[in-house]
Amino acid sequence: MHKTSWMTSDILGRLNANAGMLLLRSLWEYCPEHMFIVRVEGPADFVIEAMNSTRQAMLGDETACIGKRIEQLLPPPMCHGVIANLHRCAECGSPIRYEEKGGYVDRHGACQQGHWQTLLVPITNQEGRVTHLFGVSRDMSQLPEQPVGASPESKEFERRVHERTAELVAANEHLTHLATHDCLTDTYNRRYLQELAELELRRASRYEQSLCLMMLDIDYFKKINDSEGHLAGDEALRCVAHTILATVRECDLVGRYGGDEFLILMPETTADGAREIAERLRRTLTQTSRFTVSIGIACLAPTDHFVVDLIHRADTMLLQAKRNGRNRIECAA
Ligand SMILES: Nc1nc2c(ncn2[C@@H]2O[C@H](COP(=O)(O)OP(=O)(O)OP(=O)(O)O)[C@@H](O)[C@H]2O)c(=O)[nH]1
């Protein structure tokens, strides 16, 4: 059997007239918010036509309110602000929200200060003219008071939250660094460098910019390990990495590809520019350390779709540099 569901956005459309009236009546009578209907008499002329019991409890019963103009019910300047908003809603013909604060006279004739948040909804006749406005006001002064000054306990709690957040941010940054860098040389690790390089390749291809990749290998590195031990080998790797980072531009990407091989990706760099940087690097290492390096360079070609295409050519050039005697540079372009 088909069951009627209330879980629909068109609930009013599914109710018959009687059920609809009952729903509206329940809302009107039991809703704790202040509800009212005003009749639009003119651009700045609004007459109270109905008020729910919550509103009457504040301003006075029906006989004291119904049929009165806004300025007869609320003192200035409060009435001016309310009338301006009623006018705005009638003019634009769509719901508006506003907040109002000010003094009013309660049902016992005493002056009170109020603070409301109001939603106004226009009601139109068959010709589409706004004849009435329906309002729902929330009494903000009835909401629990916000603490003016935080208690010592909440201040301490807040301080600890800040402290803990800072610790977590620092731990997160440290983990990210570990996941993206080579722990020995502090250059990018192979996986992350390749990720970044793919983005650079796509950018360079799209904007038809030049891009070069350098692959560098320490000459006779195995001998250092074998004759002086692996710690000396590690030190050699750190020394070369440090020299690379000090020589290339900040926007160049430097990473350890494996063993004693490094990759340097140089955005917006032509073959001549890459050769110049490679030569500077080779010379600096020869002058400042006991290590020499061989370097292979590949430049972005229109047929390159992935970084491995560039890596492959740079690797071939590096092999050629080794074969041609080491401590030298070979470029594919
Ligand atoms: N100390 C150290 N050695 C490493 C590390 N990773 C790889 N190696 C060593 O690096 C050496 C790689 O040497 P190769 O590049 O094959 O040979 P090479 O002696 O540099 O010779 P050429 O490249 O032909 O000049 C091997 O001995 C590896 O064990 C590392 O993290 N630390």
Automatic annotation (TrEMBL):
PANTHER family, alphabetized: DIGUANYLATE CYCLASE DGCM-RELATED, REGULATORY COMPONENTS OF SENSORY TRANSDUCTION SYSTEM
InterPro entries hit by this protein: Diguanylate_Cyclase, GGDEF_dom, Nucleotide_cyclase, PAS-like_dom_sf, PAS_4, Rev_trsase/Diguanyl_cyclase
Pfam families, sorted: GGDEF, PAS_4
Organism of origin: Billgrantia sulfidoxydans
Catalytic activity from the UniProt record: 2 GTP = 3',3'-c-di-GMP + 2 diphosphate
Enzyme Commission number(s): 2.7.7.65
Domain GGDEF as annotated: residue spans: 209-333
SMART domains, A to Z: GGDEF
UniProt superkingdom: Bacteria
Signal peptide annotation: none
Name under which the protein is recorded: diguanylate cyclase
